[in-house]
Design brief:
Blueprint lengths: L10 H8 L4 E2 L1 E5 L6 E5 L3 E5 L2 E8 L5 H7 L1 E6 L5 H7 L16 E3 L5 E3 L4 E13 L2 E13 L5 E4 L2 E4 L4
Antiparallel strand pairs: 1-11, 2-3, 2-6, 4-5, 5-10, 6-9, 7-8, 9-10, 11-12
Length: 168
């Protein structure tokens, strides 16, 4: 029996199972002719060392997606454990910041002109390399042109909540 002939898992069962996975939190930001935008993602991963590249996904209905793709550049800002407010802002969870989510942090431009979050654990300055469609999301790969990093603890997303690491 082929895999295609099996039923797909129920969305609620899948969502509940994904609650058991922990991930780092990143805010992907862009700026350019199409305008400034950003989105919180928990799916940022390294893709390749040659060339250095990252991959993440964004829901097709996300308002910043068109700007990101039109600008063709972005910074993937990996958040430190003191930047939960930034994550919440770019996830649209702070009503008073919905019109300007960038008020949640301090920003500086990187080589591409995309905004980098000051104090982030790491900033990957990227050019959009490829875009793929799958289900409800667009998968975006970026070629990393520059990196800025500092020593800090990461912000973690687990069980639908932001968390901080504790020593074992």
């Amino acid at each position: 029996m082929s895999a295609a002939s099996h039923d797909v898992v129920a969305v609620e069962d899948f969502r509940d199972a994904m609650r058991t996975t922990a991930s780092g939190v990143a805010v992907v930001t862009t700026d350019g002719e199409a305008g400034r935008a950003g989105v919180t993602v928990s799916s940022l991963c390294s893709l390749s060392m040659e060339p250095p590249s990252v991959v993440f996904s964004v829901h097709r209905d996300n308002g910043g997606l068109e700007k990101l793709l039109a600008n063709g550049v972005f910074v993937a800002n990996v958040l430190s454990d003191v930047q939960e407010r930034v994550a919440s802002s770019f996830a649209g969870l702070i009503p008073e910041l919905r019109d300007n989510r960038f008020l949640a942090g301090e920003w500086s431009d990187m080589l591409t002109g995309a905004p980098a979050l000051d104090g982030a654990l790491c900033n990957f300055d990227c050019r959009v390399a490829s875009v793929f469609d799958f289900g409800s999301h667009r998968i975006i790969t970026g070629e990393v042109l520059n990196v800025r990093k500092q020593t800090a603890q990461p912000l973690i997303f687990f069980d639908r909540m932001f968390r901080r690491l504790a020593a074992a």
